[in-house]
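Lecture notes, unit on protein representations.

Consider one protein chain, 398 amino acids long.
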Amino acid sequence: MNGPRDNLKLIRLLADPGWAYGREIILSAAMYGHQHRHWALYVERDFDPARPLRGEVDGAIAQTTSSTLARRLAALDLPVVNISGRVANVPLPSVLPDDHAAGRLAAEHLLERGFTHFGYAAIPGHAYSDRRLAGFAAAAGEAGFDVATYGLSPDEHVDKKGGRGKKGKTDSGEKASEERRREYWLAEQPKPLGLMACNDNRARQFVNACQRIGLRVPEDVALVGVDNDPLQCQTAGLPLSSVDLNCAKIGYEAARLLDSLFAGEAPPQQPLLIAPAGVVSRRSSDVMAIEDLDVLKAMQFIRDHATKPIGVEHVLAQVPLSRRALELRFRQAIGRGVHAQIRRMRIRHAQRLLIESDLAVGRIAELCGFTEPYYFSIAFRRETGMTPRAYRQQQRCG
């Protein structure tokens, strides 16, 4: 006769619930366990890689924040799924954020606001930071712009394709305190600066540095972090814009992968990458860095009215320009035409509604300014590479 333990899986969650990344993954992994399996989950926040896992355990989902921990977990005779991108080439099945895509999203967010000067605040030795930088630099480079970097080793630089190389000189603030080095670096950058930080905590540090040396956020330095951690984003002096990594899906897919390992399936050879949900725009990047005042006025009108059934003629009514002149100046300022900008703003709004609501696709099309769901689907596929329904399914758990 089977006992109660025969059907129960004991799962250790080695994750930090003090940060939104770990907390959301824990909750969504628990949701998978409740929906699909008889799992008992135990959260262990402060774990020591040299100490065996406490108690009986059938498997684990772990933030492998060091090479030592990764090797320790890989040596265990039980299924383990890694959910941390801090260490490169972890010898475990992994479910991770698509960090390159997160970097590209942040760059596109700042490019849409007219920035031509870009910076990136890295954390040396963190692999996810390098990947986000590569995506950010690649997107900025495709638009013709370089990225100044803070936090690499003193003799490194990043080219327009996101590649890294030697620059042959040291940082002038290398011997100063970390706090002062941030201030020196910010003061040296051309303004206005569109700055991506590799995570929200790093973004907070740069908000504080800007305030200490009298730089305005977002007028002088517009900031975008990563993680969309409510505590970090809402307590930074002003609300922080941030890339939402879709941690709920990461946790759910990590639990699904662990379940497949329990069933004897072969682990994937490459990490499963989860696309970010998008940029959550808040005050720290709520600015238009466009010198052409007519284009700026037109862009502000589009931002405020894109979800209404407006066309190029409505934008033209806001500025004393011919259609040809406005199109030319739009392309010079942001690299795309007026109609393309209206469409992009509508699709960005639709992406958020697809993720955050259960509204039918037809209703979302209407709310985003499209007169026909068919044309909405065509525009959405052109902008994102997938249908609205496929996008919703990809971004959600299950």
